[in-house]
Amino acid sequence: MLLDLRLALRTHVRRPLFALLIVTLLTTGVGANTFVLSLVDAVLLRPFEFRDQDQLVMLWLRDRTREVTFVEMSYPDFLDLRERNRAFTNLAAMPAVDSTFNLTGDREPEVITGRPVTATFFDVLGVRPALGRSFDPAEQVKGGAPAAVLSDGFWRRRFGADPAIVGRSLRLDGNTVTVVGVMPPGFHYPAGVDLWTALEPEIDGIAEKRETGWLLAIGRLAPGVSLNRASGEVNAVFKGILAEHAPAFDAEVTLTPLVDTIVRTSRNQLVFLTGAVGVLLLIACANVAGLLLARATSRTREIATRLALGADRRRIVRQLLIETIPLSAAGAVAGIALAWWGTIIIKTVAAADIPRLSQVGLNWRLVVFAALLSVVTAIVASLAPARQTSRLALIDAIRASNPNTGGGSHVGSLRGGLVAAQIALTFLLLVASGLMLRSLANYQNIDLGFDPDGLLAVEMPVTSPAASDAARTNRLFESVTERLAALPDVEASAGVLLRPLWSTVGLDWPIQADSQTVDEAKKNPLINLEAVTPTYFATMRTPLRAGRVFTSADRVESEGVVIVSESFARHAWGEGMAVGRRVKMPLGESPFHQQWLTVVGVVADVRYRALDVPRLDVYMPAAQFTFPLRHLVLRTTGDPARLVPAVRAEIFAMDPHQPITDARPMIDIVNSTLGSTRLHTQVLVLFAVIAMGLAAIGLYAVLARSVEERTREIGVRMALGARPARVLRHVLLGGLKLTAAGLVAGALASAAGMRVMASLVFGVATSDLLTYGVAIALVVAVSTAAGLIPALRAAKLDPMQALRHE
Predict the structure, then answer these.
(1) DSSP assigned state of 165
(2) How many CB atoms lie within 10 A of CB 601?
(3) Gap between the Cα atoms of 123 and 220, Å rounded
(4) What stretches of 391-513 show up as alpha helix (H) in DSSP?
(5) Is the sign of the CA dihedral 55, 56, 58, 59 positive or negative?
(6) Full-model pTM
(7) Eight-class DSSP state of 41
(8) Under a CB-based contact definition with an 8 Å cutoff, are residues 501 and 673 in contact?
(9) Are 147 and 177 spatial neighbours (Cβ–Cβ below 8 Å)?
(10) pLDDT (tens digit, 9 = 90+) per residue, 528-550?
(11) Cβ-contact 301, 307 below 8 angstroms
């Protein structure tokens, strides 16, 4: 075998370009697959930090009256379920969104991210602190000692990994909180959290009410309890809870695995990307097989001579297989390097909403996978030439007048079949990438309901004592907006409860229109409730369709008013006039609780939660609202990012302790919302371009080899009067026949396989004729270009040179 290996190396040295091409093909296939698998491994396959993660589930409510799924749970419902159920060893809960805290003390103030959790949170997840302890139940009750558990990253960054941190006090929003523990380095749930605080049920006047859902509940299944059994038992308990406290509420509990909840936004895209990169590997494998088959055909007389001198056929087959070892080794090394480079790039440019992105990288399992994949790909690709050699007709091969001819028509058919398969797979990738490009374009062309260009979004959660008083907070926002509007390059500024695209959650609120009975109103979808200052719609440039916007006269002592979106107006009153109609909402301690509010205006739909589907939006004046505002928006005449220092300075001048947690141009926020979709689209397009290049190489190689093998035939034809144009057309038609066969196979495969893309595309059908037409045109154009060089070579053939050996 060592002799065979040395012979293989000498063979590759004599033909370096051929060896380099094979290595490049293997590098492309192996590197792309290893790179995608590194993403899949980090996001989907690698176990989370939780103990027995398969036993952890998320509990949601499904409102059967409104047909709304994934509804958050109220605090009283959570307590009742925790006490009465037997399907879970315990339950934990946390709000659906993070909280922000202003950390002050011996160092410069810092705005940090936290998540309030119940005392059972870490026990349910099965994770122990690396230092100290987790929360005590006594720390969760009203009046208990405020406590916090730090993340490992925050502990190291802020406190230099001081082991004496446990027991120290922190100043969060002016309140003293005791550090009781530090979590281990691998624990990152929820992602991006600096610390966890003990959840207090009395957060505000409405959070403890049974009709208000705001908690995500997590449970650990009891030993021997399946998900289906737990679902039945929990719903039996929940049915009794509703019968006691809310008999009119028709809902059930839905259980989903916690891990699936964390990765569900990326699962479908990564699974599809895995299939796409697998197709790319098949194309590379087919290309390598075609090249090795062509080389084996050119060595027919050499191999026949060896057989005539007594070489065993198995020895020849082994020699051909061993020749792939140096190529596969080089392809593995280069593929691993390519994948490693890709993992570095992806963490720099990828969207932040991809879970566990920071953990993407190569490990020993991925390195072994890449090496095995390269070896297997090379061996599989060499099976065809090895099989051809085992069936070689010895006497015919030696007698062949053309030393570059051999193998018969079945070899040419095999090479052509490999090329057709490459074209079919390339067509699949082109259609998939085309659909994703169309979807991305549709997302980018959505009418957002506002103009993001020149708009600056500022998150300013009030952490002063005014935070507990919504009226004081909203008056503060009015003062801040007036002061910011006076800045140079600022056209207008406004305050809003939750700006567009801040989160996928918000204030989902029940509502009744004056055209509906109470029972009919229970079937209404939950609206997206917003509170804004009077200048909000002008600042956002949200079109006013009818009526008026809010004014400074819309205050608590005046008539209760609202502005509704077009979608809500159509839902409540059809095509009739909405201005002047009335709506009613439960508003807690507000003087407008369950009072009829007059609709004074209708505005365009705004994409607050997501880009794909608008919600039913209802706006209240900030002066009449019961919740404190959180965001500022500024309309600027120049680059919004350049105004951030000035905005911070103005707010600091008004209140030195008031933090700003985020300040970004709105156009950047819109683009980041598409980050994950854009990334997967770009990777898929890259794979399709590579596949098209590989298919072109394969077609070129087959046609070039065909011209070489048919040199004598072409010479005879031209000697008998065939014109160069006819020869050129004949060769091109041969390539186009292979292309047509591949397109037919690819179209049939795509018709069956594109159904899996239905959940990934937006605004375009998976059978879109334009996408298919462009893909066909690209394949035909590239195939024609690939066949043009060998066709021109055949057309310029000198008959005397072709027939000189006769």
Answers:
(1) G
(2) 19
(3) 9
(4) 394-399, 408-444, 470-485
(5) positive
(6) 0.81
(7) I
(8) yes
(9) yes
(10) 999 999 999 999 999 999 999 99
(11) no
